[in-house]
Specification:
Layout lengths: L5 E4 L2 E4 L4 E4 L2 E2 L4 H12 L5 E2 H9 L6 H14 L10 E4 L3 E4 L4 E3 L13 H10 L13 H13 L14 E4 L13 H15 L7 H10 L5 H11 L1 E12 L2 E10 L6 E6 L2 H15 L13 H15 L3 H8 L4 H4 L2 H13 L3 H14 L6 H17 L3 H15 L5 H17 L6 H15 L2 H9 L1 H7 L3 H17 L3 H17 L3 H15 L5 H18 L2 H15 L5 H18 L2 H12 L8 H17 L5 H13 L6 H14 L3 H18 L2 H18 L2 H9 L9 H13 L3 H15 L13
Parallel strand pairs: 9-10
Antiparallel strand pairs: 1-2, 1-8, 2-3, 3-4, 5-7, 6-7, 10-11, 11-12
GO biological process, one term: phosphorelay signal transduction system
Keywords: DNA-binding, Membrane, Transmembrane, Transmembrane helix
Pfam family, one: Trans_reg_C
């Protein structure tokens, strides 16, 4: 390796020391494990590397599943501009592992990443008004619901009052404080932890945010030395500090000690009339032991208010948001007018799902906190408003707000918040359909998080690569990434993020028509849904559970759950979620044989505001509406025209195949067989192009039934055969096969298919004519 550790191959330069991959001078966004695989293979390019060796080097263990390793190598090849089947620059050695085969040159310097230039403060403030000069990046995720959960989680990770220094590691983890066990001191576990962390930060240490520590402390046994080492590695920290607070006569004693990262443990003690005074003294003492600069003594008069603030912070860190709000109401008016205090209250409201109250408070605060007076807080407010704007479906406003935040933060200082603002702006751009502007913002976010040493935010970025694959229709490729991220977040008890990832995985399985796999996720969605406060997220994931039940034929349970969800969330549900509920209700009613209710629900869903991220849902509902009108003997021309017009106005292109399907139905009613066949064939070609089983089964069901009714059994057989791979596990594919065998009078095949269809039907009613022997 060269002194600076840079390798050039083709258009790329790899710099392991800074963990950057450049292509023609631009940073390429890649997940951490993908980068590690590329780097290891390049560094050992003189030989083939075994699968176990690579897994051990990158994951630290050999029991990495073939699926995870294969998907990682697929992502590596894509990052290097190669398709999944190309064997360059990484060649698969069958039965052994992988070999880097392209020429590599060692170079003395890597190109500078194409990050926006750092601006002087005045230029950054001007850019806050005009917007950023560069329009780059996209953060493709499944949809606005996914974006908002990830944005919420990233928001939680950046709550520290002052930025840390740049570097690869944060430096210090402060664990929750052990207390004497008295009821009134329970809040000290998190409140005093946050106070010690803040004081160390003031003393010059770079400290992992308290939210991150709370999440990690749930995942690791902090009494075990090996687990402490793993916790420190996950947080990117050099030192882990534990504390204990005990009463001592009329006062308090706080003992702080290093429990990881120092050859000889350091211990310091602080005494005070109350726990906070003792905590400040102990934090300053351990800071001196660690060689940090000292800070000004804490003002004694501020301690009562300090206690209230730490009680609020402890409740917030523990997700006891109502308690935090109640405590905040006790603050005097002067404190409530403090900008940082007001910002904290707005975040509490947003985390609890009270976004309207949060938005009003943030808008008022934005007018009070000028960019020139406090650019960092101004930028944080702008970013928070952008997250809320995206939750409300206003992606254009969100993009502008995040852009103004970025312009302020590029002046320097807070890399963690800068990374978050880039990721949030990329989310907004995705919602606008700006996919080609995508990976730039991801690269900017990744570089900023790397600079800040923010490991957990990097995990969030990596977890969303699965959602990117989902949006691009690569459901099979997305699943290992989504499920691994879900398990990681669940282990860390980050319930919002885990629920989001499992929900995305369940929807991917539904797209693949793998109902059983989706059904296995449903209990997890229910369990995690009880642990989150946001009503929109609970409603959205509840609707996914309804979809799973419908797909399984559990119609009564689906109807009951849908009714409960509507009764609980109808008043506060945004219009797009209400529209999704109506669309699901239409399919449920159609499966139950209630054509009138299906039509009413489909009509309601078609009137809901258009949303770019659920174009397939809207398109499928358009077909349901046309079908139910046909069953009722009603005109369909206006429904087809409205469907096509809505599809043309969507931000993201609605799969044209569903419009073709509706046109085919209209031509069939008009007895224009030539036009119907042409439209069906076009829809079928579109479904095969998407390579999404859900699309293919939807089209094959409609086209196959029409061909059978028309007597064209030869073409019907070819169409039905296209969904044969799903006939063993999917009710609709099996029913279509049964219908074909019955029409063709293939009695043995019909009997076998009918038995299988009955086993898959659940509570769905098989047409009586198909139960009669041919």
């Amino acid at each position: 390796m060269s002194p600076k550790g840079c390798y050039r191959f083709g258009e790329f330069v790899l710099q392991p020391s800074t963990r950057l991959l450049h292509r023609r001078g631009d940073v390429v966004a890649v997940p951490a494990k993908v980068f590690d695989c590329i780097a290891y293979l390049v560094e050992h390019r003189d030989r083939a590397v075994g699968r176990d060796e690579l897994a051990s080097a990158v994951w630290g263990r050999v029991d990495v599943s073939d699926g995870v390793l294969n998907q990682t190598m697929l992502a590596a090849r894509r990052a290097l501009g190669a398709g999944g089947r190309e064997q360059r620059p990484i060649r698969t050695v069958i039965g052994f592992g992988y070999h880097w085969v392209d020429p590599v040159d060692i170079v003395e310097a890597a190109p500078q990443p194409s990050l926006p230039p750092r601006q002087p403060p005045r230029e950054a403030m001007a850019a806050a008004t005009t917007g950023p000069a560069r329009r780059i990046g996209m953060f493709a995720v499944l949809g606005v619901a996914v974006i908002c959960v990830v944005a919420w989680f990233a928001w939680r990770l950046h709550t520290t009052p002052a930025p840390g220094e740049r570097g690869e590691r944060h430096g210090v983890v402060v664990l929750p404080v052990a207390t004497s066990g008295e009821a009134d001191s329970a809040w000290l576990r998190l409140g005093l932890m946050d106070l010690v962390a803040e004081r160390l930060r003031t003393d010059g240490a770079t400290v992992v945010p308290s939210d991150t520590v709370v999440a990690l402390a749930r995942a690791f046994d902090t009494s075990d030395a090996d687990d402490l080492a793993r916790l420190a590695d996950a947080a990117g920290a050099d030192v882990v500090i534990a504390s204990r607070a005990t009463r001592e006569g009329d006062g308090w004693l706080v003992e702080v000690r290093t429990v990881h990262g120092r050859a000889s443990p350091r211990t310091a003690r602080g005494h005070g009339r109350d726990a906070l005074e003792a905590g400040v003294a102990a934090a300053d003492a351990i800071a001196a032991e660690l060689g940090l600069r000292g800070s000004a003594p804490a003002a004694t008069a501020d301690l009562p208010m300090r206690e209230l603030l730490q009680r609020i912070q402890a409740a917030t860190l523990g997700d006891r948001l109502d308690e935090a709000r109640t405590l905040a109401a006790r603050a005097p008016d002067a404190q409530r007018r403090d900008p940082e205090f007001a910002f904290r209250l707005a975040k509490i409201d947003a985390q609890a799902g009270r976004v309207d109250e949060a938005a009003r408070a943030l808008r008022a605060l934005l007018g009070r906190v000028g960019a020139e007076h406090d650019p960092r807080l101004h930028a944080r407010i702008l970013d928070a408003l952008g997250v809320i704007a995206l939750q409300r479906g206003d992606a254009a406003d969100a993009e502008a707000l995040h852009g103004r935040s970025i312009a302020l933060l590029r002046a320097g200082g807070d890399e963690g918040q800068l990374g978050k603002s880039y990721a949030d702006r990329a989310s907004a751009r995705f919602a606008l359909g700006r996919d080609d502007d995508a990976l730039g913002d991801v690269a900017q976010a990744r570089a900023a998080f790397e600079n800040a040493g923010d490991r957990l935010s990097l995990v969030v970025l990596d977890g969303n690569l699965g959602a990117i694959d989902l949006q691009r229709g690569r459901y099979r490729e997305a699943l290992p990434l989504l499920e691994e991220a879900a398990k990681r977040f669940e282990t860390m008890r980050i319930h919002y993020a885990a629920l989001n990832e499992w929900d995305a995985a369940a929807q991917a399985y539904l797209m693949l028509r793998e109902t059983g796999a989706a059904g296995r996720i449903a209990p997890t969605l229910a369990r995690l849904g009880e642990r989150v406060a946001d009503p929109r997220l609970r409603f959205g994931t509840g609707l996914t559970r309804v979809e799973i039940l419908v797909a399984m034929g559990a119609l009564r349970a689906a109807r009951t759950l849908l009714g409960e969800l509507r009764a609980t969330y109808a008043r506060e549900a945004p219009a797009e979620l209400a529209g999704r509920a109506d669309a699901i209700a239409a399919r449920l009613a159609l499966a139950s044989g209630d054509d009138a209710d299906a039509q009413a629900s489909a009509e309601a869903a078609s009137s809901a505001p258009a949303s770019g991220d659920d174009s397939r849902e809207q398109a499928r509902n358009g077909v349901v509406l046309v079908r139910t009108r046909l069953l009722a003997g009603q005109p369909i021309d206006d429904a087809v025209q409205r469907f096509a017009a809505r599809a043309a106005q969507a931000t993201r292109s609605v799969p044209r195949l569903y419009v073709d399907l509706a046109q085919a139905m209209r031509a069939g009613v008009a007895r224009d067989d030539a036009a119907a066949r042409a439209a069906f064939e076009q829809a079928l070609a579109g479904a095969e192009a998407t390579r999404v089983p859900l699309d293919l089964v939807e089209v094959a069901m409609a086209y196959g039934e029409w061909l059978i009714a028309s007597g064209d059994l030869a073409r019907a057989g070819a169409v039905v055969e296209k969904v044969a791979p799903w006939a063993k596990t999917d009710y609709e594919a099996s029913l279509l096969q049964t219908r074909l065998y019955h029409a063709a009078r293939l009695a043995p095949a019909w009997a076998s298919a009918l038995e299988r269809t009955r086993s898959l039907a659940g509570e769905r009613r098989i047409p009586p004519e198909l139960a009669t022997p041919p």
